[in-house]
């Protein structure tokens, strides 16, 4: 699918079936006998080939898709992709019956990843992260969100975010970075959560904002992490710095994190296994996306499912993401994530596919730029050797990607 562009960079994919994901279209917005035209990295036409304005077909480099399906490029809107080492030893301990507390006492948990990240150089972090990013890219992913949160001090949070920012220089992919300094307490905090929040607000976030290292700010609102009041302080600072917010909410208990996220107009609230109806209603009203993370649910053998029916009833938009991280979701397949979302949580095929395209873009505040096939959006496409879109959700461990198009190339 390579070759040089002709006629002002105009390129045309024809004889395709499109999953446009356009808002308001029925279902997946399917177009039989469709075409996509792109110029200078942007889609200029996506729709029925018969309705395409004649100029888009004149002198363009033309690719015959031979009836294949085209979706928007996939979007992984929640990852912790930059980390050092792994925590396979903890996995073995848990299989042998160790509890979360016993693993933590043995030096495991987030603190283990903090130790490893602090010991690694920025170059080492980039080198260790690229294979994980490559696994996502190989499945048609064109946009990835990457959180910090394993540095937990100024220098190492900045190092983590700089490493993430470098990834799109190494690969043809859009990287969005999120500062998750309020992820856990580092050992030197000696249990003083309020003092650590002071450090986040007075030192880490201002520096990260000044150096433009983050596109958003996240926090972990949970008994083992930070209280709603502490997270609210972080969010107040983020808003003062002009950064949008997201939240790890209601994963292990109901601290009303979803409602807190909604109160701050968060782009998304993520996990949400324990969210109640009040939280769902608040998210719907605020336009906060529910990001569903079945990898963590599966890996830590959680039993409480996120309230998908509540989200449907209230009209909450749902994204789906890998939560790729070393401790609770060492997952680098968005295709498998969709299957988990359908099998474990009862998401429909349409919800899964929207969740890794349109709604994932919404969860990153990027729906004006990507996530659907329509004029004006980035020409980020995935072309598939499948007979119907359901195959992308149905198969496990099989990658039917024919070609991944990044900015029209």
UniProtKB/TrEMBL annotation:
<comment type="similarity">
    <text>Belongs to the metallo-dependent hydrolases superfamily. HutI family.</text>
</comment>
<feature type="binding site">
    <location>
        <position position="323"/>
    </location>
    <ligand>
        <name>Fe(3+)</name>
    </ligand>
</feature>
<feature type="binding site">
    <location>
        <position position="87"/>
    </location>
    <ligand>
        <name>4-imidazolone-5-propanoate</name>
    </ligand>
</feature>
<dbReference type="GO" id="GO:0019557">
    <property type="term" value="P:L-histidine catabolic process to glutamate and formate"/>
</dbReference>
<dbReference type="GO" id="GO:0005506">
    <property type="term" value="F:iron ion binding"/>
</dbReference>
<dbReference type="InterPro" id="IPR005920">
    <property type="entry name" value="HutI"/>
</dbReference>
<protein>
    <recommendedName>
        <fullName>Imidazolonepropionase</fullName>
        <ecNumber>3.5.2.7</ecNumber>
    </recommendedName>
</protein>
<keyword id="KW-0408">Iron</keyword>
<dbReference type="Pfam" id="PF07969">
    <property type="entry name" value="Amidohydro_3"/>
</dbReference>
<dbReference type="GO" id="GO:0008270">
    <property type="term" value="F:zinc ion binding"/>
</dbReference>
<feature type="binding site">
    <location>
        <position position="327"/>
    </location>
    <ligand>
        <name>N-formimidoyl-L-glutamate</name>
    </ligand>
</feature>
<dbReference type="InterPro" id="IPR013108">
    <property type="entry name" value="Amidohydro_3"/>
</dbReference>
<dbReference type="GO" id="GO:0050480">
    <property type="term" value="F:imidazolonepropionase activity"/>
</dbReference>
<dbReference type="InterPro" id="IPR011059">
    <property type="entry name" value="Metal-dep_hydrolase_composite"/>
</dbReference>
<keyword id="KW-0963">Cytoplasm</keyword>
<dbReference type="GO" id="GO:0019556">
    <property type="term" value="P:L-histidine catabolic process to glutamate and formamide"/>
</dbReference>
<feature type="binding site">
    <location>
        <position position="325"/>
    </location>
    <ligand>
        <name>N-formimidoyl-L-glutamate</name>
    </ligand>
</feature>
<feature type="domain" description="Amidohydrolase 3">
    <location>
        <begin position="121"/>
        <end position="387"/>
    </location>
</feature>
<feature type="binding site">
    <location>
        <position position="328"/>
    </location>
    <ligand>
        <name>4-imidazolone-5-propanoate</name>
    </ligand>
</feature>
<feature type="binding site">
    <location>
        <position position="80"/>
    </location>
    <ligand>
        <name>Zn(2+)</name>
    </ligand>
</feature>
<keyword id="KW-0862">Zinc</keyword>
<keyword id="KW-0369">Histidine metabolism</keyword>
<feature type="binding site">
    <location>
        <position position="323"/>
    </location>
    <ligand>
        <name>Zn(2+)</name>
    </ligand>
</feature>
<keyword id="KW-0479">Metal-binding</keyword>
<feature type="binding site">
    <location>
        <position position="248"/>
    </location>
    <ligand>
        <name>Fe(3+)</name>
    </ligand>
</feature>
<feature type="binding site">
    <location>
        <position position="183"/>
    </location>
    <ligand>
        <name>4-imidazolone-5-propanoate</name>
    </ligand>
</feature>
<feature type="binding site">
    <location>
        <position position="80"/>
    </location>
    <ligand>
        <name>Fe(3+)</name>
    </ligand>
</feature>
<feature type="binding site">
    <location>
        <position position="150"/>
    </location>
    <ligand>
        <name>4-imidazolone-5-propanoate</name>
    </ligand>
</feature>
<comment type="function">
    <text>Catalyzes the hydrolytic cleavage of the carbon-nitrogen bond in imidazolone-5-propanoate to yield N-formimidoyl-L-glutamate. It is the third step in the universal histidine degradation pathway.</text>
</comment>
<comment type="pathway">
    <text>Amino-acid degradation; L-histidine degradation into L-glutamate; N-formimidoyl-L-glutamate from L-histidine: step 3/3.</text>
</comment>
<feature type="binding site">
    <location>
        <position position="248"/>
    </location>
    <ligand>
        <name>Zn(2+)</name>
    </ligand>
</feature>
<dbReference type="GO" id="GO:0005737">
    <property type="term" value="C:cytoplasm"/>
</dbReference>
<feature type="binding site">
    <location>
        <position position="78"/>
    </location>
    <ligand>
        <name>Zn(2+)</name>
    </ligand>
</feature>
<dbReference type="InterPro" id="IPR032466">
    <property type="entry name" value="Metal_Hydrolase"/>
</dbReference>
<feature type="binding site">
    <location>
        <position position="150"/>
    </location>
    <ligand>
        <name>N-formimidoyl-L-glutamate</name>
    </ligand>
</feature>
<keyword id="KW-0378">Hydrolase</keyword>
<feature type="binding site">
    <location>
        <position position="78"/>
    </location>
    <ligand>
        <name>Fe(3+)</name>
    </ligand>
</feature>
<feature type="binding site">
    <location>
        <position position="251"/>
    </location>
    <ligand>
        <name>4-imidazolone-5-propanoate</name>
    </ligand>
</feature>
């Amino acid at each position: 699918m390579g070759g040089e562009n002709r006629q002002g960079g105009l390129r045309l994919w024809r004889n395709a079936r499109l999953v446009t994901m356009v808002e308001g279209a029925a279902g997946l917005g399917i177009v039989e006998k469709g075409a996509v035209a792109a110029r200078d990295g942007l889609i200029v036409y996506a729709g029925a080939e018969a309705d395409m304005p004649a100029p888009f077909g004149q002198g363009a480099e033309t690719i015959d898709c031979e009836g294949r399906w085209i979706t928007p490029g996939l979007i992984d809107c929640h990852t912790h992709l930059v980390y050092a080492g792994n925590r396979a030893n903890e996995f073995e301990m848990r299989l042998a019956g160790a509890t979360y507390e016993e693993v933590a006492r043995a030096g495991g948990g987030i603190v283990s990843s903090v130790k490893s990240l602090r010991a690694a150089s920025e170059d080492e972090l980039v080198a260790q992260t690229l294979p994980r990013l490559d696994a996502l890219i190989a499945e048609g992913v064109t946009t990835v969100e990457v959180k910090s949160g394993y540095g937990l001090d100024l220098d190492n949070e900045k190092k983590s975010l700089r490493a993430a920012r470098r990834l799109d220089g190494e690969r043809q992919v859009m990287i969005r970075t999120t500062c998750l300094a309020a992820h856990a307490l580092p050992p030197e905090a000696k249990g003083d959560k309020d003092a650590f929040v002071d450090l986040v607000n007075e030192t880490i976030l201002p520096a990260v904002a000044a150096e433009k290292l983050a596109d958003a700010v996240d926090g972990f609102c949970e008994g083992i992490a930070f209280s709603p009041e502490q997270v609210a302080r972080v969010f107040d600072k983020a808003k003062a710095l002009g950064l949008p917010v997201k939240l790890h909410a209601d994963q292990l208990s109901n601290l009303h994190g979803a409602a807190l996220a909604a109160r701050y107009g968060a782009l998304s609230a993520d996990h949400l296994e324990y969210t109640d109806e009040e939280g769902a209603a608040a998210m719907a009203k605020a336009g906060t996306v529910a990001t569903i993370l079945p990898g963590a649910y599966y890996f830590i053998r959680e039993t409480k499912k996120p309230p998908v029916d509540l989200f449907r009833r209230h009209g909450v938009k749902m994204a789906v993401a890998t939560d790729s991280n070393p401790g609770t979701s060492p997952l680098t397949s968005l295709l498998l994530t969709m299957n988990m979302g359908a099998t474990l949580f009862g998401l429909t095929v349409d919800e899964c596919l929207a969740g890794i395209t349109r709604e994932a873009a919404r969860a990153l505040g990027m729906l004006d730029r990507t996530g659907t096939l329509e004029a004006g959006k980035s020409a980020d496409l995935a072309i598939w050797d499948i007979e119907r879109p359901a195959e992308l959700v149905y198969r496990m461990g099989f990658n039917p990607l024919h070609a991944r198009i990044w900015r029209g190339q």
